[in-house]
Amino acid sequence: MKERVNKIFSKMEEECDAIVLMNGQEPMLDASFYYACGIDSGLFEECVAILQPDGRSTLVTSQLEESAAKNSSAEIITYSTQKERDDAIKNVLKKSNKIGINNRGITYSSTQYLRKIIDNIEFINAGNALLKARMIKDSDEIEKIRSACKIASSVADSIPEVLSCGKTEYELAAEIGYRMQKIGASSTSFDTIAAFGKSAAEPHHSPGKYKLQKEDMGLFDFGCRVSRYCSDITRTFAPVECSDLFKKVYETVLKAQYLAIEKIQPGICSADVDKVARDHIDSISEFKGKMIHSLGHGLGLDVHDGGSFSPKSQIILEENMVMTVEPGIYIPGWGGVRIEDDILVTKNGCEVLTHAKKELDDVKIA
Hints:
Creatine Amidinohydrolase
């Protein structure tokens, strides 16, 4: 983990004596804590990781997480009382006053706690450095994401086995989650989206009791975690009674995705990738303005792991970034189509990590 700690400090715009990553209580857990410590399991509520500019790291952990902590290469300090935790943190930081914290991941109560136990403490934001470090994945991270993508892809291809008229959205959402965990996922990456018919026009639809009809499309957005790392895939299935409009929407979205994927390579601005897909969709008059979200986002320990493909994003792509590419068209009162895959930026282009079928002939509801 020393390489990760060094990478974080190399991204800092302002020097500091140490970086402190502190979890709150679930769900207020900072993914950067697990990144810096290299921990695959355990919650580590209210535990602290202290990173030093020379690459050293110290994990101050409760007895509850002692076994899980042993998987980290950090120095481990175990506490059983509040005072023991206070003393351990103060001792490690006794020569530190300028402390980097993750503004995106630390709670207000945690910052107040640190101010209380450490005299003359000054906080600076290490959040941007953490974000930039995490965007470039190492080989271990890539393999975990690759495994999560393989599981999600397999389940995506199996959806036609269980998708039939009369099934409810929440039945399919539950089935997808079950199938991913059955073949190796530790959990879903996020609440599975299952949207039938008109509900597919709502990008973040929550599954309900609506039953699939012959004229309905079925949109499924889901992913899983392997050793904390996420996958994220979307497939939209054609109705039994497939209209010309659905075919046109689907082929437009699929072409937009192919164009965007072809554009991806190191040195390209993220906004330019979004533009390729958006311009293709907008070139067809009846679909202009119907892509109502960004083209994609970073993927890793969080399902939104920093960075995006959007009109305002100015990130320059680098090798070993992992992103989603998910163009969509949404028509209120009719439905929507989104096709999403996960990609790894490579030396000369990108590798698509999710391999579920997506040609129109392969995604028809039986």
